[in-house]
Amino acid sequence: MTETAKPGAPPLLLARSNFSTRSVPPEERHDLYRREVLRALDARDPEPGFSATITSLRLGPHAFYVSETGGQTLFRTREMVAADGLDAYIVQFNIAGSHTGDFDGAPFSAGPGEIGICDLSRPMLLQSTAVKVLTTFLPRAQVEAVAPGVDLHGMVLDANRAGLLVEHLTAVTRWFPQLLPQTLPGITRATVELLGACLAMEAGRAELAMRESPLLMRARSYIEHNLLEPSLNPAKVSEMLGVSRSTLYRLFEPLGGVTAYVWDRRLHLARAALLDPKRARRISEIAFQCGFSSEAHFSRSFRRAFNIRPSDLRSLQPSLAEEADSPFRRWTEAAKCA
Question: pTM of the prediction?
Fold first, then answer.
């Protein structure tokens, strides 16, 4: 990927393409999705009622994908790595839903508001709930220039520290109709440099992840899947893990404590809800669903965590107009980063 087009090269293009399974019978949807959309990964075991709706926003060779898909298992094998030769990173922001799995032998877990990174030169296995994600592919050389010597495969960026990158990605999708082709180099460069800044802020968190025990992974996964349960508390988590309360507190001490961790994750779940344009719920409704006693309490906590009011965050949400479906397979070529 170059900063400017070479003499005689075709002009940089800005365009959008949509894909949806809504026009095919339910039993054919997952096969259509695999055939028309997936290139770097493959999928199996779709949940009943699987559907997929994906919008590709293409800026020259750089593309952003806003995807809503049902639950499934995604994977990339060593054989696939050897066969297709793709050599880039997938950077994916979870707007809603979660992923758990194995990235070349390391456990992986990413929930709403977090960013996960996949190195396409290595295998991975991922169990996905129904999700809404914003994804882009970045060239290896550019990413490694801002993160030399860092093992990024399976890294999950803490949502607090990834805020700048999240807001950049959502702003690109929101402002896409007004962008000009000459903005491409700056947008690509900004995406990579903001990733580098987030990685620098995440360094301490990454070191913790390397030491993270299977027990802590289980606890985090349980909390992630039960965030909206009013009964979720340290006693419930310790009972599920089969450990004492004191052991649980020591386990979560590097993360600020189990209670603080639960409220932090609820704030990020609320943040993801505010960024979802297709579920424009009232702020008070989101606050109460995420366990806050009042909208005022929620707003104070949210601003303290993210340095922005919930109402102001809504201006950053992706705004994608409905368009007719169009052939999508050719757009996956945008994922091929030179």
Answer: 0.64
